[in-house]
UniProtKB/TrEMBL annotation:
<keyword id="KW-0539">Nucleus</keyword>
<keyword id="KW-0853">WD repeat</keyword>
<dbReference type="InterPro" id="IPR001680">
    <property type="entry name" value="WD40_rpt"/>
</dbReference>
<dbReference type="InterPro" id="IPR015943">
    <property type="entry name" value="WD40/YVTN_repeat-like_dom_sf"/>
</dbReference>
<dbReference type="GO" id="GO:0031080">
    <property type="term" value="C:nuclear pore outer ring"/>
</dbReference>
<keyword id="KW-0677">Repeat</keyword>
<protein>
    <submittedName>
        <fullName>Nucleoporin Nup43</fullName>
    </submittedName>
</protein>
<dbReference type="InterPro" id="IPR036322">
    <property type="entry name" value="WD40_repeat_dom_sf"/>
</dbReference>
Length: 342
């Protein structure tokens, strides 16, 4: 264990691909999930913040482990106590955690096998997104699947949604998703339509590098943000047909982006170059009903950023819960940032 002011570091001896708080209704979260990758045996672990060896500071302690085949590629909640987990063997699992006793081992509620495959053989499910119990998955086969977590069925499959590997997906609305591929092409799909054609498509940039992650604004979902393999972050206003505004870039690929759940003016991003940045988006995300006040960020330094963490190895994932942030990546450690001013 290491300690530096408000940042506590616990070494866990495995590379972590995804990390997620388990929210509590009326208090700060004390438990969280991690999903590993690049290990002989990968797993989903449940951790609890606890006092260890008469320490006055709480550190993560693992309380249960669920083994998975392949690398974990994404973890998202479908309901309060159920997560969807995608893996590199083309599977998506629903795992359930007890609402009252977090130390109880995870229970597998459902599994979709071979969701993504090429020439009949399983290929990675690269990412997934969730909304109100529905799950959208994308994979290296270029397909999009819509799953119903309540019934356990596949409600829609968009075959050959792209000619190359899809790397990111996000729900815009319950009946609309946006995907990003290996070459930076982004497409919007109307899930009510019977044909497999996008309703809109656009290019991240001229470098044709992968779109690594996509999110939308929590209160103004027509604002779409995407992170690139190059480290660039771009933003679109779907109400107007304009080129994206490019924000200040990370030195290397963007791994995750999230708005703070309690403050939509706070954006956090992590990257392969080992930084966790905090962005002040208040100037951009004004709650306006017209498009006249849209601010085009041609000057990349217009949006101020603050470095919350720097690591000598890539940061793959992070999550926020009130003033606490969890960060994990290739250095086989969990960083616990306390007292974040959100």
């Amino acid at each position: 264990m290491a300690q530096d002011g408000n940042v506590k570091v616990t070494f866990v001896s495995q590379k972590i691909k995804k990390i997620r708080w388990i929210p509590e209704d009326y208090a700060e979260a004390q438990c969280f999930f991690t999903g590993s990758w690049d290990d002989e045996v990968n797993n989903i672990k449940v951790w609890i913040l606890d006092y260890i060896n008469d320490n006055e500071v709480k550190y993560p302690k693992d309380v249960s482990t669920f083994i998975v085949e392949g690398n974990v590629t994404e973890i998202q909640f479908t309901s309060k106590n159920v997560i969807a987990v995608s893996t590199s063997d083309g599977k998506v699992r629903l795992l359930q955690i007890s609402e009252y006793e977090r130390k109880t081992p995870l229970k597998e509620a459902f599994i979709w096998n071979n969701l993504h495959k090429i020439a009949g053989r399983a290929c990675p499910c690269t990412s997934l997104a969730t909304m109100e119990g529905d799950i959208a998955t994308v994979g290296e086969d270029g397909n999009v699947n819509i799953l119903n977590s309540r019934r356990g069925d596949i409600t829609r499959t968009i075959t050959e949604a792209d000619s190359c590997s899809l790397h990111s997906v996000c729900f815009i609305k319950h009946n609309e998703v946006i995907t990003g591929n290996l070459r930076g092409h982004m497409k919007i799909w109307d899930l009510r339509s019977s044909d497999n054609k996008p309703t809109n498509s656009f290019l991240f940039g001229g470098d044709q590098l992968a779109t690594t992650c996509i999110i939308n604004h929590p209160t103004q979902p027509y604002y779409i943000l995407a992170g690139s393999e190059s480290g660039a972050i771009a933003m679109w206003d779907l109400r107007v047909n304009t080129f994206p505004s490019t924000l200040k870039s990370h030195p290397s690929g963007v791994t995750e982006m999230k708005f703070h759940p309690e403050n939509p003016n706070k954006l956090l991003t992590s990257s392969l170059s080992g930084e966790l940045w905090e962005w002040n988006m208040e100037a951009v995300m004004k709650n306006t009903k017209t498009t006249e006040n849209w601010i085009a960020l041609q000057d990349k330094n217009t949006t101020p950023t603050n470095t919350l963490l720097e690591s000598f190895k890539p940061l793959n994932s992070f999550d926020c819960n009130k003033g606490n942030i969890l960060v994990a990546g290739e250095n086989e450690a969990i960083h616990f940032i306390k007292n974040f001013k959100y």
